[in-house]
Fold these 4 entries.
Entry 1:
Amino acid sequence: MTVKSLKFNPAFLSDEDIIDNFVVRNAEFKQIIRSISEDTLQTNRHVLVIGPRGMGKTMLVLRIAAELRRNQELREKWHPVTFSEESYNVTTLGEFWLQALLHLCEQTENIQLQEKYEELLKRQDDELVQTGALKGILEFADKKKKRLILIVENLNMIFNEQMKADDARSILNTFLCEPRLMLLATATGQFDRIKIQDKAFENKFHEIKLLPLNEKDCEDIWESVAGSKPEDRRIRPIQILTGGNPRLLSIVSTYGKNKSLNELLENLIELVDDHTEYFKSHLESLAATERKVYLSLTGIWSPATAKEIAGLARMSVSKASSLLKRLENRGMVVSKSENKRRKTYQISERMFNIYHVMRHQGTSSSMIQALVNFIIGLYGEKSLAQIMQDVISEAGTINEKDRHFHYQTFFEIYKLHHLDPDKFEIPDEILGVLCSSLRKFDEVEKSDDNIRKVLDNEELKAALVKVKAELKTNLSEERVQKFQKWFDSEKSENLIVSMFHHWQLIGHAYWVLEQWDEVEYAFKKSLELHPDDFRLIMNLGSLNFHLKRFDEAEKLYFQSVKMKPCSENWSCLGSLYRERKMYDLAEEYYLKSLETKSFMIFTATNLVCMTFIDCRDREKGSVYLDKYLITSYDVGHNLDWVINTLIELCADDFSRDVLAVIERSEHRGKLESFLTGIRLYLGENEEDFKVPPEVIEIGKDVKERIEKKKTEKEDSGD
């Protein structure tokens, strides 16, 4: 059954709708009903439901009220009095009981109570108001021969922010001493001024803390809102996106499958617009300094330290830490301790990150970033290859002038999540836009205008160049010959990409086809046209290296170095000497490469792997691992290279060395999931890990990758 949807105020629902919409928190519902059923005049125990905004507190207590009205046995003993979700006008002891009287007369349409309320409303003496309102409430209970359950929302806000501590304590004392009254209250956190654990209140309050929903509950909400079960493995990323928050989950569940990219963007904009009130109310519930810290954190998708957040919020680290702790107590922020000295924080409900980007940054790139994060949350990282395929395929069905948004989205996903390029294909319709830099060769003679547009777009061209070396495709000799013929034609003369001469492109195409004579011919033709290009000489050297003509490769590499020494040709020499098992020379040239300004990540991975795996030098390998892959380099932007290298090392029995290096690194936060994976691989119990559930799930994937790589090594005899 598909439930009735409201933005975020279930108080407008009928009892029937509330019961239909109530699909989670059943365990807590049963606890409270049992507590009410077992309560007697002698025990007089009260219930406090604690949880962040959106966690289902209102829905839970309204479901309790509905049950008290529909269950005959409970209806004969109890009468619920439901306060509004916000009681901003309650600032004194008298106003609290006057508000209770108002809700009682409104919900019963009792004329005598209405007259009593109107009479007390004119009084200025708060003590007289309190005495008169409470008397009217208790007289109603006696007349009906029922006990009253006052359902009060956001009690901590009333006690902490709206009234004096003495008034708050007096209200609690009334509930403790008056058996005709029971309090069912909600709160976003503990009371700052009054501890209900004090002796006076000991054993009088049954606390129920609403935790983030588990996967099963998330599935139930999805099915109730969307009207169908979620696809396999789809619910986990949505759980992470929403932080297991029922309200956010209900919102996101309305955006289902089979959406085009433009539809998803429209949905996301609509989602933010329609629920701006909810997002704003979430923020407005915070004090100004808390809000400043929270907003600083919403602009960051990755976990951040208190120092980083303090810098963004322009306040001291100690003050930021104190405010973060308060936000964590409210469930709005989650933290994880990476070691004794380092703790990071992130927003518990990731939709607020997206709301912040959409509302407060507003640029085209920020919109795309928000959309990508939304897509990933909705469909999961395991589906990204298919998503990229869908984005590119969809681009081929629309007008060329409207495709730029699709290309930006494609590259944003690729930039953030370096995917295996074998998992998706680029269709013929847009090959012309991508072929020059992606080594995709097809019906390019039809697409010269598209290539010209790419060359005129510096941002897109730069993105293409980044991806070029990592994307592969299935090529045929016929395709390459067609491409060569097209480039040789007159119409292509002004379209040759300056950084890659067409003979060089032909050579790379034949390289994929493993037609080495054709590769050599193309590279030499390119060199004839550009004899002073050190990169072309280096590429010809790499061909000889690949064909194990090491002496010729060495000669060409040194020729390239003589023309222009750079990180690339030093690295090529390092790899050449590593292949020839001349490890001292290999180390020398790898280090020369790494000392240049244009640091190359694959050089660092080669040096680290050689030192560990080939030389079995754990001490020096640990130094290089720390210096070049963990500490000195930007792990975040090269995480795939780093992870693959670490998996290679762990599979070669260097897992404890890797673990030691990461644990003492200041960048361990970016590798928390991998660290968890190593520990699981080494046999540690996941129950001992103080990390979020999603980190453990990713850690399990890392463990499987290490085990798979180890099996591959054993099978190959390495």
Entry 2:
Amino acid sequence: MDDSVNDPANDSVAGSGTDALADRVADAGAAPVPGRPGPGSPPGRPGPGSPPVRWATAAELSSAQLYGLLRLRTDVFVVEQACPYPELDGRDFEPGCRHGWIERDGRVLSTLRLLVEDTPDGSALLRIGRVVTAADARGRGLSAALLRSALARCGPAPVVLDAQAHLEGWYGRFGFARTGKTFLEDGIPHVPMRR
């Protein structure tokens, strides 16, 4: 296991011509301590002794870690949700992409990814996506811990996501608000949201 995966010096989100934004994300500091998210945090906190949130680029992941992240996403987004659509979209290896995950005993329990995106007006924003927790690990606050960690890295930068419609209220507890109409993605209703 490469210890650089947990080194805060490796937490910068770079690439796609958004160095200033990447610097702000890198300067956001380390993730909150699991089980101690701080005042005003949304419910669903993991308990004491919960595994830490880890961050890495795809290139920094071991093949076993990358397989674990992609397998969990496929198990949930393709198999469990019965969506016969390709899960892999080519964005996992973008220079600005960071993968956050929580694992126990080498098994990935929850993951998300953080992307840097350019906008038509030349500004940049951050996109959170592929937020997922294994069926047998749900209800422990793992996705909440991941989302808090991602938002800490983002600092005040604008952040967007496309939430499955039934999770709109959950994301709202983290400061996200709907920005448009419900749309179908892979046959599942989603809503665009921004913080």
Entry 3:
Amino acid sequence: MALVAVCAGVALYRRRGGADEAPVEEEAVAPPPEPSPLPPAPVVEAVTAPRARVAITLEVKRAGTNLLSAAVEYRIILHNAGEVDARAIALDLRLFGVDPALERTLEALFAAPIERAVVARFDLAAGATAALEGTAMLPRDIMPPLAVQGIGEGRALFVPVMTVALDYGWDGGSGRSAASFVVGLDRGADAKLGPFRLDGAPRMHDRVRQLPFTVSRDD
């Protein structure tokens, strides 16, 4: 009986000893450090290939009407502001009259290729300037008369618009420049341009001026 009691006591002691042991806490594992952010990619600027770029300037010398047409005596100055030569320049010149559909007409004109150049094609070196002079005319029977209301109503008036368009190329590309100019009587720097009369005697005016019209193109 004593042996049994001793064995039982030992067994009891062992069980109690196991119950009194403190629990072992697991150590917290630190998360791995986040990777350093990558440096931003370097900005690479786009390199534009050199090209020709022909600018248009119009100088009006005289304008008015003769027996058969409206006429504008002009001097056109072309300047190649690009880095390379402009090759095989095709020049188109036209004279219109102001009317409600003119802007749409000019937009379509400037979008179409030049089929018949007014002079033989020519080249213009980078940085060079060329000047051309002549007279643009519009027959009287197709001039659109300008409607006048109020003071001056009943008069037949006409406001010419001259257009200059260019097609040209260079090694590796092609371009187009086009501009439109309204022409009228010069009434001073702060005054509007005056229209030309169609119901009076034909007359060419020396005191005239041009201003940019609303439609242009530079491709």
Entry 4:
Amino acid sequence: MLPDQYRNVTDDQISAFMTEEIQRYTGGVHEVEGCRPDGELFPLEVAVEELPDSWSMLERRRSCRRVFIASVRDITERKELADQLQQSQKMQAIGTLAGGIVHDFNNILSVILGYTSLVLDDKANNGTTRENLEMVMQAGRRARDLVEQILTFSRRSDRAKERVALKPTVEEVLKLLRSTLPATIDIQQSLADGPGLVLADSSQIHQVLMNLCTNAAQAMTTGEGVLTVTLEPAPLDDAAAMRLGLPAGPYLRPKVQDTGTGMDRQTADRIFEPFFTTKERGEGTGLGLSVVHGIVSDHGGAITVDSILGVGTEFLVYLPEVRDEGQATEGAEAGQTPRGTGRILVADDEIAVMKMSEQLLSRLGYDVVTENDSRRALGIFRKDPDAFDLIVTDQTMPGMTGEKLIQEMRATRADIPVIVCTGFSSGTTLERIVELGVYAVILKPALAELLGRTVHEALSTVYAAD
């Protein structure tokens, strides 16, 4: 049970320990390192007490020696639970912190997505420039979806599922990987044709595939190897379904395979445990694959791992296939943004967001007045409330919130339609805003197309009778 550094000791050292060092351990509980038969170090809790004179006095006098009693306890599980508690507290703190940072982060994303969309509208940008900008838009959308998941985590709310075509999702992941992974990693793919639909949250499926592929790339520690991604139908009969704990039926099976370092059986058995990681301390949370496992399970599927140390690892994901009914989501947001007319007052304390909204709406034919101070915006409106057809306002602004601004404007003109754009607000705040009778609430970072369509719909609906 002793680690190597304690095994080769001389009699003199043992004597010195018995007369001096043991005093430090007597009368308390101490943590030391032990060594398992396979060489693995593990934490031990040691308690040492010297037996009093009343214990076997005759024997002690005969031997002229002191007698100690010690208890040794393996505290590996307790330490792991303590680490998990610490990680859990960190995650709870992240959830609490999320609301504080999301507003600013969403404003930044709004600027990135908005201005990229404006540049893409310029027909002069073709070829490589357009492809690069479209990659920026894709990354921005994924960042937006990630923020939504952070908010979902902090609120413990559910996300809606819809029919998702898996093949385009896999292709998008591979396209992103090819632009980020070193060229020395050969990415191979084999994707079956066909509808390939699953009922899913598209951003979470993207997260699963990206996580598995990123882990596979990191497992090829030399920076070289082959990453293979396949997608194929995998109907499960009763026996196969029982082994996976799933109902029998049609499934789609994405597979991610690498030629990396691989894992031994003990590691592979624990790979989906929360907070378990094979990375060095500080390099990983141990949450990635446990989150992947949770997402797959939440989608009614299963995930398996097969690994050989020194050869590589293979992950198989099983997702229930759904029939081709209705339109499938492929992750892209397209469509011509309708043009319109009308005078719009835009209030947002973030100047970059405000100017982006002004450019977008002006291009679509609207007359736009902007103000980055909510109190000054109220003053502009009060001077001539009938001059405006629509208000677009942020919620979180210094001096006066969007909610208060709406109340003040409605006191002057009760029928003015309002669209609220917000980076983050609590559920209670959003409920109060909706109760004010606003036309729509748009969560930042809103794509330019969404803002343009919502403005057009609001003006068309509210003034349809005119």
